[in-house]
């Protein structure tokens, strides 16, 4: 039995990569993932990746930030330590606009970015699970799960026909950094 | 990808004949992966001497108190707040380039955003040190935060613009840092995958395990776009709030409603000038002429011209409103800028910011690298004087003539200022040594659509008629890093 875990098609050009995806999909070869050194627009539709919902997270964190500072200011200025400065109201709302805005932005930025890290499993020191070292440099990589797929040689031929400059049969799941 | 290409009449954003994805990585990472050259060492030695001066001067200030500065009871804000506002202003170009230009889909930002964002971070650090030092008791800085303290129900005064400042600057710094670092992840992964040994371990930690999978890229772009969307009003709000430190007072020369837009325009003006100062040298020293091209330099000069002109209009408006208000103190303050003892500072401000900037109307000047570099420094000098004029010249003669006084800086004032410049350049030089100064992933993104070779390919494939080809050949002479002889085959 073959020990190949992943078949990688390495492309030198993003357009050829797109062509490779089309070819594989036409031949009903399921694609595990695609790794590129830069974002490629339109590829997510091709691979059936749903739109990101990070925008909703951003909105919720923004609301949380705005509400937090506004409530804090109310508590501090009206409830905990009201000051009579020339008879001016303790809770002067226009004065709170700058700080409310700033914390809305602050919470949005941090909340959304942390959600992004959480959702994509990125955190400091995480062992990188790259398929090929050049996938972050100049190669556009299509990874195909080797298990239960059509004969590997056929996949290799399909990738080569689509313009892959190199095809690799990896017997490890990832290139190891450990 | 395949369907997208830019019009031939748009200047290429990447010059050079045979640039490949691999070459972009090699070119950008050359200073990171190799020992730095002589120019870097010279620059670093000078800058770190300046940083040492800063350490000495700031330590002296902390030890002796701010009596070591030339402040007096009339001029209670002087070089420190001048330096603070100047540095915060310089920081603004980074966010403008990374956020506003991203929202407007201005791809030319891709080559300069990383350095500009780094510049923002370092400039805001310099600004923050001024504020901490100005407190006199920097260990009490936490009192400016809305946190419980040992004095019972003692909270910060949310009605004070100085507290708005605390919120604005700290938010601005943290959001800029998050934006910058998130954008760095793909490039850190590139360095990691090319490195060996300890370097690989370090960059492995820093790159958060980035792999470059499609889903990550999609979400990464969403995050960047939303961060740009919220940073855009943020950057406008920050200098607006800084201007309110002045505008909400009753001080003649400060109490003016034009300050928020005027300060924002001035900030972008000085920020772009500093980006220009840094990048004109960086591109030469690091050999990045193909990525930071004449187009970028000219585009930045155009923004300097635009914002400089807005600042000029703001100066005129200030004068007119001082006259139109009928307030004699206000009128005197503005006259005092020209006929008072600090007339030279006023002349520097108007001369550098308004008159010199107008030279940028001439294309020959806009596209001349040495002149652009000198002008960018002139703008920064002018903007420093603008803050000096607003702060010191307004304060030194206010409502009561018996309290009129002059401000004379001490050696500590001067050393803190020169030292902060040294500190800034030290941080910037270290940055270009350990991190990619150009966002590689973003530059790779535009290689197939906006580069010189993409346009050449269009010509070679016969997609363009003769007129367009001739036009293209003419434009080649405008690029500084390529030669018409390279294109004989076209």
From TrEMBL, chain A:
Lineage in the entry? Bacteria, Pseudomonadati, Bacteroidota, Sphingobacteriia, Sphingobacteriales
Which sequence ranges are marked TM in the entry? 54-76, 96-119
Q: Which named protein is this?
A: Quinol:cytochrome C oxidoreductase
DNA damage in keyword set: no
InterPro entries assigned to the protein according to its UniProt record, in alphabetical order? ActD
Q: Which PANTHER family does the protein's record reference?
A: LIPOPROTEIN-RELATED, QUINOL:CYTOCHROME C OXIDOREDUCTASE MEMBRANE PROTEIN
Give the source species.
Mucilaginibacter xinganensis
Q: Does the keyword Transmembrane helix apply?
A: yes
Which of UniProt's keywords are assigned here? Answer: Membrane, Transmembrane, Transmembrane helix
Automatic annotation (TrEMBL), chain B:
Specify one Pfam family: NrfD
How is this protein situated with respect to the membrane?
Multi-pass membrane protein
Q: May I have one GO cellular component term?
A: plasma membrane
Tell me which domain of life the UniProt entry assigns to the organism this sequence originates from: Bacteria
The primary location reported for this protein is membrane
Question: What are the transmembrane regions?
Answer: 39-63, 83-104, 116-136, 162-184, 223-242, 262-282, 303-322, 342-361, 373-395, 415-435
Keywords from the UniProt entry: Cell membrane, Membrane, Transmembrane, Transmembrane helix
Subcellular location, record wording:
Cell membrane
Q: Give the protein family.
A: Belongs to the NrfD family.
Q: What is this protein called?
A: Quinol:cytochrome c oxidoreductase quinone-binding subunit 1
């Amino acid at each position: 039995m073959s020990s190949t875990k992943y078949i990688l098609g390495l492309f030198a050009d993003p357009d050829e990569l797109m062509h490779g995806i089309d070819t594989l999909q036409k031949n009903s070869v399921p694609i595990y993932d695609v790794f590129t050194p830069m974002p490629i627009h339109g590829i997510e539709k091709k691979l059936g990746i749903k739109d990101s919902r990070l925008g909703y997270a951003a909105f919720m964190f923004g609301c949380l930030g705005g509400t937090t500072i506004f409530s804090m200011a109310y508590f501090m200025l009206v409830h905990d330590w009201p000051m009579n400065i020339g008879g001016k109201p303790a809770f002067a709302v226009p004065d709170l606009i700058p700080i409310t805005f700033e914390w809305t932005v602050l919470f949005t930025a941090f909340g959304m970015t942390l959600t992004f890290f959480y959702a994509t499993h990125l955190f400091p020191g995480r062992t990188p699970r790259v398929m090929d070292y050049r996938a972050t440099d100049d190669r556009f990589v299509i990874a195909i799960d080797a298990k239960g797929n059509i004969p590997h040689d056929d996949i290799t031929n399909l990738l080569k026909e689509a313009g892959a400059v190199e095809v690799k049969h990896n017997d490890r799941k990832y290139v190891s950094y450990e | 990808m395949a369907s997208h290409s830019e019009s031939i009449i748009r200047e290429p954003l990447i010059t050079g004949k045979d640039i490949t994805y691999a070459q972009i990585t090699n070119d950008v990472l050359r200073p990171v992966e190799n020992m730095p050259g002589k120019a870097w060492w010279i620059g670093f030695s000078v800058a770190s001497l300046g940083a040492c001066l800063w350490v000495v001067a700031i330590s002296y200030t902390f030890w002796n108190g701010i009596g070591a500065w030339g402040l007096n009871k009339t001029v209670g804000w002087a070089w420190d707040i001048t330096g603070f506002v100047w540095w915060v202003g310089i920081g603004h170009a980074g966010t403008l380039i990374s956020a506003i230009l991203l929202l407007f889909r201005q791809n030319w930002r891709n080559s300069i955003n990383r350095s500009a964002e780094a510049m923002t971070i370092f400039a805001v650090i310099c600004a923050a040190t001024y504020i901490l030092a100005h407190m006199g008791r920097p260990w009490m800085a936490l009192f400016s935060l809305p946190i419980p303290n040992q004095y019972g129900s003692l909270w910060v005064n949310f009605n004070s613009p100085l507290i708005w400042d605390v919120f604005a600057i700290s938010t601005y710094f943290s959001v800029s840092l998050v934006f910058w670092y998130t954008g760095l992840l793909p490039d850190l992964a590139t360095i990691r995958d090319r490195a060996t040994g300890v370097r690989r371990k370090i960059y492995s930690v820093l790159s958060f395990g980035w792999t470059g999978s499609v889903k990550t890229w999609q979400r990464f772009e969403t995050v960047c776009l939303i961060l740009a969307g919220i940073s855009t009003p943020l950057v406008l709000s920050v200098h607006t709030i800084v201007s309110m430190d002045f505008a909400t007072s009753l001080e003649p020369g400060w109490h003016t409603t034009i300050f928020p837009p005027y300060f924002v325009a001035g900030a972008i003006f000085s920020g772009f000038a500093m980006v220009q100062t840094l990048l004109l040298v960086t591109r030469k020293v690091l050999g990045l002429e193909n990525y930071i091209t004449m187009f970028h330099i000219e585009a930045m000069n155009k923004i300097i011209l635009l914002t400089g002109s807005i600042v000029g209009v703001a100066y005129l408006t200030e004068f007119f409103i001082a006259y139109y208000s009928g307030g004699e103190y206000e009128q005197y303050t503005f006259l005092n800028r020209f006929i008072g003892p600090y007339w030279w500072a006023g002349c520097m401000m108007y001369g550098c910011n308004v008159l010199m900037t107008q030279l940028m109307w001439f294309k020959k000047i806009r596209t001349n690298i040495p002149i652009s570099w000198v002008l960018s420094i002139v703008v920064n000098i002018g903007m420093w004087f603008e803050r000096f004029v607003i702060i010191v010249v307004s304060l030194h003669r206010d409502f009561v003539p018996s309290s009129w006084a002059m401000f004379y800086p001490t050696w500590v004032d001067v050393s803190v200022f020169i030292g902060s410049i040294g500190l800034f350049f030290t941080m910037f030089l270290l940055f270009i040594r350990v991190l990619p100064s150009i966002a590689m992933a973003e530059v790779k993104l535009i290689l197939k659509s906006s580069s010189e070779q993409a346009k050449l390919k269009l010509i070679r494939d016969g997609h363009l008629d003769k007129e367009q080809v001739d036009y293209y050949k003419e434009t080649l002479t405008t690029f500084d890093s390529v030669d018409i002889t390279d294109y004989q085959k076209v």
